[in-house]
Amino acid sequence: MMRGVAQSTAGTRWTNGIVPYVMSTAFTAQQQTLITGAMRNIERLTVISGRKCVQFRPKIATDRYSILIKTGSGCSSHVGQNTGWTGQLQLTLQVSTTPQSSHCMYERTIMHELLHTLGFNHEHQRSDRDSFLTINYANIQNSYVFAFDKLTSANSDNQGTPYDYNSIMHYGRKAFSSNGQPTMVPKNPTATIGVKTTLSPIDIQEIQKFYQCK
């Protein structure tokens, strides 16, 4: 069951909003600072009534679940705590090997992946997305069509929040394009998607709702 762009099953919500993590030593000190800086920004932006709504901290011995933040191919994360998962939860961030190579070491990208870790899926997968977007399947790379799957009202709950073109969880117009043409087009002609560098007000509201912060 999805909640807005978030999972709604109890096991997906991190206990007390605390996400223990293990940081791979393959990251440079500068890269580790960038990653922890993205964590601090999410914590700061979601504070409510002077208290942290969510918190990322290094794993300690008593933590049952944690996320391993590692280098690898592409940018990806498990979605939520997933208590039914028997393996190590992972967040993967590709680092640049040459000045021209693609990588994930941007604060926006790291925050996006950390929201996956918190239990959130992509905004453009909402059950009501067809009222706000046109998906051009003919332009999507075959191996990434799954990333445009739409949730249904049977397995999703939009939390009463409006569709958010400004969400940090929204793909851009040409995401995973096979031919340089748009893979999705907003039905609002003035909307921009996939360009925001921080959490939107609705992103913040959804995190606070999902983690029942007051």
Automatic annotation (TrEMBL):
Its EC number is 3.4.24.-. Its cofactor is Zn(2+). Signal peptide: none annotated. It holds the Pfam family Astacin. Zn(2+) binds at residues 112, 116, 122. Binds 1 zinc ion per subunit. One of its GO terms (molecular function) is metalloendopeptidase activity. GO terms for biological process: proteolysis. It is an enzyme of class 3 (hydrolase). Keywords: Hydrolase, Metal-binding, Metalloprotease, Protease, Zinc. Residues 3-214 form the Peptidase M12A domain. The active site is at 113. InterPro entries: Astacin-like_dom, MetalloPept_cat_dom_sf, Peptidase_M12A, Peptidase_Metallo. This is Metalloendopeptidase. It comes from Rotaria socialis.
